[in-house]
């Protein structure tokens, strides 16, 4: 059994309590317009190209096995549609402008890698967080990783968008200590428009986890003009009423990952999205604080 991951981030103080090692899985069923990790969306390995690092040495052109790189008006142009991921352009890039995102790994090798950090987990009450993309879109692979980690006494958190198989969610719940559960948009039409999927399954899976007495931390990205209205906030309150939510994390939208879209030759569709100001974030925080423990970030 093998799965596909993006990278392993060590000594993280986010994505759950304590010091954590976060495994980012490749592939996501959603295409959220505000996504700051667009390299996590595709289930395929990809090549990211940073033209600001490029020295125009043209080694990539000469090494490409499928002739999908060319020089046009003194700029290196890559036709990613024709790329066969031979990785020759990466091997011959002297400036580090080209990077492969995505690698295959089996569960035992992955667990062996993250267990190098076990002393950090023990001393901080931390653990491993399985994040994405969406980890449960590689269901059996992710379940096996969680099982192996729990067998070794490691606390495991799962960061999920909720648009996943109910069977996989229920199966993995026995190995997960904390679910970091995303709620993005209440309005179903807007959810479909801005994330690419309907939210019905997400809401059903949240209730499923609650019925299993799972520990749930709700995470809400705040994008002004999309999900910060009074109706949206009240809708979230109505949704989680009666669900055993332990904490809410408000995640204000930012454009830190904007440059990645250019690296992947993707269009960054940010015209309708705004960074919420501090007053708006504080207002929303106070609304949730009437009933829940709330943090900004995390």
Describe the structure.
There is one protein chain. This protein has 298 residues and is an alpha/beta fold. The two termini are 32 Å apart. The mean pLDDT is 94. The protein is 31% helix and 23% strand. Helix 5 packs parallel to helix 6. A nine-stranded mixed sheet has the order 7-1-2-8-9-10-11-12-13.
- Count of DSSP helices? 11
Radius of gyration: 20 Å
Proportion of residues in extended strands: 15-25%
What's the arrangement of strands in the largest beta sheet?
A: 7-1-2-8-9-10-11-12-13
Give a quick account of the main beta sheet: strands, pairing sense, barrel closure. 9 strands, mixed
Q: From N to C, what is the helix and strand string?
A: EEEHEEHEEHHEHEHEHHEHEHHE
| Number of structurally distinct domains | 2
Q: Structural class of the helices, strands and pairings?
A: alpha/beta
How many beta-strand segments? 13
The low-confidence parts are: none
At CATH level 2, the architecture of the largest domain is Alpha-Beta Barrel
Residue-averaged pLDDT: 94
In which range does the helix fraction lie? 25-40%
Quick one: overall form? globular
CATH superfamily of the largest domain: Aldolase class I
Provide the CATH top-level class of the largest domain: Alpha Beta
**Whole-Å distance between the termini?**
32 Å
CATH topology of the largest domain: TIM Barrel
